[in-house]
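Researcher: I need the complex structure. Ligand is calcium ion. Inputs:
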Amino acid sequence: MWKSINTTGAWEGEIWNRRKNGEVFLEHLTITSVKDPNGVISNYVATLTDITLRKEALDKIERLAFYDSLTGLPNRRLLQDRLTQALVLSHHNGRQGALLFIDLDNFKMLNDTLGHDMGDLLLQQIAQRLESCVRKGDTVARLGGDEFVVMLENLSSYTLDTMAQTKIIGHKILTVLNQPYRLGSHDYHSTPSIGVTLFTGHEQSNEELLKQADIAMYQAKSSGRNALRFFDPKMQSSINARAVLEGDLRLAMKEQQFTIYYQPQVNQSGKIIGAEVLIRWLHPERGLISPVEFIPFAEETRLILPIGEWVLKAACSQLKSWENHEHTRFLQLAVNVSARQFHQIDFVERVCDILKLDGINPKMLKLELTESLLIDDIEDTIFKMNTLRKLGVHFSIDDFGTGYSSLSSLKKLPLDQLKIDQSFVRDISIDLDDAIIVETVIAMANKLNIQVIAEGVETEAQRIFLEKKGCQFYQGYLFGKPIPIEQFELLLKKNLPRDISKSFYTYCPAHQADDHAH
Ligand code: C2E
Ligand code: CA
Ligand code: CA
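Model: Output:
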């Protein structure tokens, strides 16, 4: 202080001062020297400001910026800072560290049932328990929501030892978080899913590490929750593969790599009365890809929405081109509708728009819905189905027997058809249970005045059994596999009685040459 005053004539800084009552406080002090006309210092002027409040405000700002206000734990920003430091340190001392990504199972349900106050209480207790599981130098942070990260530092220089050490702490966290909680007047049980990744040096960025721990956490979730999983590079590659598939699917949409196959549906006398529309993907490198491989994925990524719409449009324009010929105008097309697609708010409007586009008779369109889709939101389902049914659109329940729909909910729906799942048909003659199920479904549907179609019919024995029990319609390899439109129309021609089939040539002249070749 004196040095500064002597050389520059002033000093300022913060000092601890003591009040008369003995309380210590922080003070901002400025000292300036005052000189007389001869240049000799005559006085010192000191200005004092009590800055306790300002200091408190600054501390609070820091706390808000770096700590989570609900739990008092470091937030994402501070975790990032500490992780950066930890990586530098690990690079210098060769010791490894670990990141544990912790996500509570079913936390949303707690919030929804007991309210956000109870949710907050749980998060605070979780924070305390997590802190009790780690050493002083380790970091417990809350990223937001029900996501926490524990960072362990200074573990072993050997990966196997580091894994073992981390496993011990990870399992401790699992055990401790599994203990019952008291939330207000409620006893509550909560479980976490934990994903772990190890770090050493600064080969990887903060973001990469957090992502890895997050991926491992999802693995823990999909293994059935309440579990601990270590990140494995294989997880990354399967995620990369999904990313590739997603890109490919988008491209397929843009470049129209999809095509439609038609599988005949026949009545008891073997006459083709329509077809099920089944999508195929003609991949430029991988060739023909089955929908089993990409539809579930398209559902997850919502790509099913444009894809499903494309299928519907394609089916309707096919119906349009059949409409003007007496031998094809009776054909009905069954289109599969996925849950995501059906539950879109404007599903009904979309179907109406497509029907209007071609101006086809809605009765020729049959939508296949699965049981699980129906019961998901039964009121919404009933409303949508009724609206479309009034226009004339038909409905069939796909894979019937594999879901859990109750008879009482079925009765509320405007159904035209039940489609007995192929798993029951397959074993009809060897498994008594399956035979009984099939028989019961047919009897029930007949009572409720709903059509029955059996799918996956491959043998004459199966057909005979089904016919005996009163099944009216059939689909399966016995009558025809899914085929492209040209082949389907050929099959139609063969399916007609001889004399009529001649006039069919005028409808599909393109196939004439092909037919002569046979
Ligand atoms: P699904 O709706 O149950 O379709 C019946 C599946 O069984 C078809 O497989 C069909 O080729 C096959 N199949 C038919 N008859 C027989 C038979 O006699 N024996 C055997 N073993 N199999 C038979 P595909 O075409 O591979 O379709 C699989 C699933 O993909 C469909 O099951 C459906 O859930 C879905 N899918 C197909 N196209 C579409 C679509 O346009 N939209 C939606 N959302 N899903 C579709
Ligand atoms: Ca189907
Ligand atoms: Ca089916």
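Model: Summary of the prediction. The longest helix spans residues 233-254.
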